Amino acid sequence: MFKVAPILAFTDNYIWLISNPDTKEAWVVDPGDAQPVLDKLAISGEELAGILITHHHPDHTGGIAKLLEHKNVPVYGPANDKIKEITNRVKEGDTVEAAGSSFKVIEIPGHTLDHIAFVYDNAENPAVFCGDTLFAGGCGRVFEGTAEQMHGSLSKLAALHKDTQVYCAHEYTQSNLYFAREVSPDEQAIRDRLSRTATKRRHSRPTVPTPLSIELETNPFLRCDDQDIKASIETHSGKTLPSPVEVFAEMREWKNNFVDP
Ligand code: ZN
Ligand code: FE
């Protein structure tokens, strides 16, 4: 079984370090920057064994070249010419062996068209590395795909085992929960989560990973079919929104323009 540790990069990126305690081999997910990874490996005494990439954005790929100078390891990622260092291009249904465990690839377009996630669907300790698609309390912006694609991708993630630990790539939780509270002011579960999150952030502690069960309960972007959320988004947008995709699209639009209190 692997263990996972966060490596903070830039201001709010998490590069996830997946390591095998027996062999000391370490894989990194989305190394936007190489130096924090090299520093971490120097301290832990682990050996870089491979790189997993969820999508082509520079804050997820910028460190690959320098890591490969340090050690020539395989780079698994989506089929996209924009990431030239990828050695193993993977697609839906492929399996990647990393740190002694098997990760299944799923395609989750929307934030970008090439976006993939790596799923460890072991019944005891399931995990997903989902980049900028599902965030704790929120979701990524829809840059390249359509609202329909993003909603479909979030639904795919929501269908994973409810105990799945969600390893997203940014520390956006507090801001996301301010928005969730705005959408659902009467939801006590959101208020409770916001206060737990604020306490962690005051001590600069990560708020991720989070179990999918908590997301299903408090992340409005996974609850577009909820009648109260639909009513809230309809009131805010002044539109009738017959389908969950339309609710999602208007909610994402609202969040794009939402300023933290
Ligand atoms: Zn991104
Ligand atoms: Fe990002």
- Percent strand: 15-25%
CATH architecture heading of the domain at 1-90: 4-Layer Sandwich
Structural class: alpha/beta
List low-pLDDT spans: none
How many beta-strand segments? 14
Number of helices: 9
Named CATH topology of the domain at 1-90: Metallo-beta-lactamase, Chain A
What hetero molecules are bound to the protein chains? zinc ion, fe (iii) ion
User: At the first level of CATH, what is the class of the domain at 1-90?
Assistant: Alpha Beta
C-alpha Rg (nearest Å): 18 Å
**Tertiary shape:** globular
The largest β sheet comes out as: 6 strands, mixed
Write down the overall mean pLDDT. Answer: 97
Description of the structure:
By secondary structure, the protein is α/β, with parallel strands linked by helices. The chain has a domain at 1-90: Metallo-beta-lactamase, Chain A. The protein is 34% helix and 24% strand. It contains nine helices and 14 strands. The chain has helices spanning 35-44, 58-61, 64-70, 147-158, 173-183, 188-202, 212-218, 227-237, 244-256, and strands at 3-9, 13-19, 25-29, 47-52, 75-78, 88-90, 95-98, 101-107, 116-120, 127-131, 134-135, 138-139, 165-168, 210-211. Strands 1-2-3-4-5-6 form a six-stranded mixed beta sheet, with helices on one face. The protein has a six-stranded mixed beta sheet with strand order 7-8-9-10-13-14. It has a two-stranded antiparallel sheet with strand order 11-12. α4 (147-158) crosses α9 (244-256) and α8 (227-237) crosses α9 (244-256). The mean pLDDT is 97. Residues 55, 57, 111, 132 line the site of zinc ion.
